[in-house]
Here is the input.
Amino acid sequence: MAFRPLGIGCGACSHAEAMVSAVELRRWTREEYERLADLGLLHPDERVELIEGEIVKVPPQLSRHATGVCLAGDALRAVFGEGYTVRVQLPLALGQYSEPEPDAAVVVGDVRDFVAAHPTSAVLVVEVSDTTLSFDRDAKGSLYAAAGIPEYWIVNLVDYWLEVYREPSAIPGARYGSGYRSRVIALPGENVDAPALAGSRVAVDDLLP
Here is the structure.
């Protein structure tokens, strides 16, 4: 006769599986997330982001990544003038459950337009990626597409090129139900069109450290 541990039968297994499948994560709202910071439960120097209700810890910046962030900010400010603001590593309020802090975001408006609240959209979001490349492609890409961000760039420090994502739309199987239909790789020495600015271009060399 085969030995069967007490209480571990087919019925028990099925019941356990049903319980696991019924478990849901408790998501944080943006309001609660910001309240955690006000209460000091999130240290001011602790680099975190709220992504679809989950508080995600951002890894320490390597010097190459930090240089890429500075270059992205400078390159975008040189192209986007009056009527736009380039925000570097500052929050975007993307719905009730997300407050990412992209490495750079070009938003419509003046700096003082966002005294009372973070911007809720952007014409362009840029992430400088090395150790977080997979996360930036998958989770961040799906998040920004779901929020209707028309264009998303990844300054890829691993392969040393720029990835340009366009045409956000619903995509079954994507992390948050949306993604970008178009993906173009721009290499060093090439230029890419700046979104919302006809005739303006950004040199890939200006973005890569």
Notes: The first strand starts at residue 48 and ends at 51. The first helix runs from residue 10 to 22. The chain has one domain: 30-206.
